[in-house]
């Protein structure tokens, strides 16, 4: 069975990326292709996207898309079949994808992503002359109004699926925007777009979807509780028969230490001694002491969700045990400042780079000994999957996808050769201290540490199994719609 899939998302690797969402959206089309799924991905026409697309082919034109002119362009970029919403007033601006250079959200984000969703619904309804999808798959709040526009419009019969990458980001706006959304009056209500007296983009998508997926099985269960449901647990529990937890995969061609062109030295599980060249390069990059102490790395948004405030309070302990720390990320200003202060305080032991650097993230995975991910909640997480692939032992909180992908180095797992990392709970300073103690102890036992690295590198977190599950879900939804 051949399936035509429209994917709608606000970012896609390798064109534009702020986090794991882009990696998933960019990798899934190729993984789905062997299962007979032909994917076209609708994304905003940010400057970086248009630069890679070139001229493109204009397939549709809008003279009044929420008050602005726009076009839908088509093209191929690095094997991805793209539909690009070229709306200069919405997307061609300096700053980030969702906010300005100072980090403030764009005040018209509701209009920008309502426009993206409206165009997605139009494509589902057949606005393109030569192609109409059999099913629509949208990602996170920025695309979640697509199912709502489909439900109340000409594409009501096309199956629609919403994937939650992080329930904490919901796209909530004031009720005053409802008249401008171009929805019928019946869309205002608990069964529509209304959410606690305002508008909820993600809520509108979840209530309008034929299926809801999360990016790990454990997270699918966690969001059913008031603690992790972020105000949507009631809705989710009411639709639990439509809820599926499908673990994210990774692009094993981009993330392959045997062929990675971004590394000083490539290596495989059977040649892990070659990792030492990457370790030395990482030490030189950050001016770290060249001793045998384990190098811990953090590659993350610096936020409360990621538990990085806990890490700030643990740095002195880590250094006191002989460890070193390298941090790459950006986020909350107080946390950025705290890590920079630690680097000043512990010269030669702590290195920090604020921002994001894709090549550097590869070097850190290949040269670091252990990656720290003390998240308070984590829908899936990709950095621990990259780490496993690169022999960088994950140290993770027992939540969401972290719990689903890392096998704790308890005595039984070590004896069986199955251990791949350190898993701790709860996400608090005492447990994190204990996890770091365990890393230092295990790192000092070379045969055990080597076995953990190799077990992690053997684990299969490619898209194979997950893509097959998505393809089967698409086929089922299409059959139900007939």
From TrEMBL:
Q: Give, as in the UniProt entry, the pathway in which the protein acts.
A: Glycan biosynthesis; glycogen biosynthesis
Its UniProt entry gives the catalysed reaction(s) as: [(1->4)-alpha-D-glucosyl](n) + ADP-alpha-D-glucose = [(1->4)-alpha-D-glucosyl](n+1) + ADP + H(+)
Q: Which residues bind ADP-alpha-D-glucose?
A: 17
**Which parts of the sequence belong to the Starch synthase catalytic domain?**
4-237
Q: Which GO terms describe its molecular function?
A: alpha-1,4-glucan glucosyltransferase (ADP-glucose donor) activity
What superkingdom does the record give? Bacteria
Stated EC number for the protein is 2.4.1.21
Q: Does the record's keyword annotation contain Transferase?
A: yes
Checking InterPro entries in the record gives:
Glyco_trans_1, GS/SS, Starch_synth_cat_dom
Q: Which Gene3D superfamilies match?
A: Glycogen Phosphorylase B
**Keywords assigned by UniProt, alphabetized:** Glycogen biosynthesis, Glycosyltransferase, Transferase
Any matching Pfam family: Glyco_transf_5
What positions does the domain Glycosyl transferase family occupy? 291-441
Q: What family does the entry list?
A: Belongs to the glycosyltransferase 1 family. Bacterial/plant glycogen synthase subfamily.
Q: What does this protein do?
A: Synthesizes alpha-1,4-glucan chains using ADP-glucose.
Name of the protein: Glycogen synthase
Species annotation = Sphingobium olei
State which gene encodes it.
glgA
